[in-house]
Write a structure and sequence with these properties.
It contains 14 helices and two strands. It is globular. The chain has a two-stranded antiparallel ribbon with strand order 1-2. It is mainly alpha-helical. It has helices spanning 2-20, 29-42, 49-61, 69-97, 117-137, 143-167, 180-206, 215-238, 241-244, 258-266, 269-278, 284-296, 299-319, 324-337, and strands at 101-102, 105-106.
Length: 342
Amino acid sequence: MAEIRSKFIQVYSVLKSELLNDPAFEFTDDSRQWVERMLDYNVPGGKLNRGLSVIDSYKLLKEGRELTEDEIFLACALGWCIEWLQAYFLVLDDIMDNSVTRRGQPCWFRQPKVGLIAISDGLILRNHISRILKKHFKGKPYYVDLLDLYNEVEFQTASGQMIDLITTLEGEKDLSKYSLPLHHRIVQYKTAYYSFYLPVACALLMAGENLDKHIDVKNILIEMGTYFQVQDDYLDCFGAPEVIGKIGTDIEDFKCSWLVVKALELSSEEQKKLLFENYGKADESCVARVKELYKVLDLQGVFAEYESNSYQKLVKSIEAHPSKAVQAVLKSFLAKIYKRQK
């Protein structure tokens, strides 16, 4: 795994160098330095799980056959396209959410001299994906399918972000709008398609598969993405900040979190009143009251039951799949997230 990771990092340097010398644009020294700094700050800084998953998945689909250098490079390039997509979303999300930090450092738009130039940088990040795909995949039989896949997943993710934003509109804080179906919709579109389906879909296309014949795989991965986000919602409140790497703010931010939706389901009228009065307020005592209610309602126990049921249901769906190679891909995804602590 360490060997694949270091190979993956090497490919980032190759792609970056190609983009900084793209013949479609005449760079000045200033513009080249700006883009290089922007890329290094925003693209390779995360856990790289999404990108590395393309290579893992492709290897499993090839059922142990040794990959050629070219295949490894192309799988890495597709993995980096997902990391570029993620960077584009995060740079713009942070402006929309007025966030302070991301991945343990100040958000890009908070950097001196950056500010709202970060919007332009986000657009450049998005356009880089098309440039990488054109340079390395244009001659491939699945090139059009790749473009189609990235365009569709970007549309789904942007639409998920939109429902998330209009649900938490300032001045229109209405907890009664929050429900499990709404939570599910936001999660499915905002997170599951690009974080879970996209890496596997890239690997399937590289392996010569037709995505229309893998709707069942897509459905399983979307379910997995939903389970992953429920874990995230849970860890935001109950995870240790030193382990998860951030201090959760879902309660203060009035997020449509799985915890608040379950709390609304399980609360008495009196408890609902407490939620309505305290949820979405930055006051520490309000946050403490909400957390106390979560404990009284035993949301930790409710989550443990949800986790166990989700896991069993996913394993059953995966084992019903006719291809052992596809099963291996899906099981490796599930193993990475089951009972995670961060």
